[in-house]
Design a protein that fits this description.
The protein is α+β, with helices and mostly antiparallel strands. Helix content is 32%, strand content 27%.
């Protein structure tokens, strides 16, 4: 999984990477180690002498890998909401588990199977993430991305944390480029799923093409 690389060669590779780099630590396991990476950490950009290939200097702190992939994340979230069936039985958070179980229970009731004994199987696929074909995942984007261009609108969510404090969170929502709906309409749709929440537009809209998304994901998989 790991191979030693000369420092000079490693620095040249890092200098060419659009997504920068991050540090890695190894968490011991019973049968080996688990690599842990902090993709929120900002790294220094490196400037290379094109003639000699040597590192000239470190530039100022750049954006973290997570920050650079933020637009891609929101576009993929849009596609997930547009067509949930495209991702099969995938779950992206613990909060998505209960609706699935509730739906499954209702299916049993509709079939008259309530009261029957159920058996649940818990399985762990060995080296699952390590053996995923990254190239195949990128190829799947051709069928997943439904638009040539997307618009991302930034907004603020304000919710009470307790009786004396409120929490503020900045985020984005992606839509097709030709569907620039009013923020009030988008906020009204989100409010149906959120209680005691205030949505405020940050008046910032950016565009992102499907070609750029595929390029960013291709780079991140290498």
């Amino acid at each position: 999984m790991f191979a030693e690389v000369e420092k000079t060669k490693a620095l040249r590779i890092l200098a060419r990477r659009q997504l920068g780099y991050t540090l890695i630590r190894l968490l011991p396991k019973e049968t080996g180690v688990r690599p842990i990476m902090n993709l929120k950490r900002r790294g220094f950009g490196l400037e290379v002498n094109k003639r000699t290939g040597e590192i000239v200097r470190q530039k100022f702190l750049g954006a973290s890998i997570n920050a650079l992939l933020t637009q891609v994340l929101h576009v993929l979230n849009y596609e997930k909401q547009r067509d949930p069936a495209a991702l099969g039985s995938s779950l992206f958070s613990v909060s998505e588990l209960y609706p699935r179980l509730k739906q499954f229970k209702q299916t049993l009731v509709n079939k008259g199977w309530q009261g029957r004994r159920l058996y649940l199987v818990k399985a762990d696929v060995q080296s699952c993430f390590d053996t995923i074909d990254q190239t195949r995942i990128i190829d799947l984007l051709d069928n997943l991305l439904s638009e040539d261009e997307y618009i991302l609108q930034k907004y603020v969510t304000v919710q009470p944390k307790d009786s004396s404090r409120i929490g503020t969170r900045y985020t984005m929502k992606a839509n097709p480029a030709d569907d620039i709906s009013a923020f009030s309409t988008m906020a009204a749709n989100m409010a149906q799923k959120s209680r005691n929440t205030v949505f405020s537009s940050a008046s910032l809209m950016t565009s992102c093409s499907s070609l750029l998304i595929e390029m960013m994901l291709s780079v991140s998989s290498k």
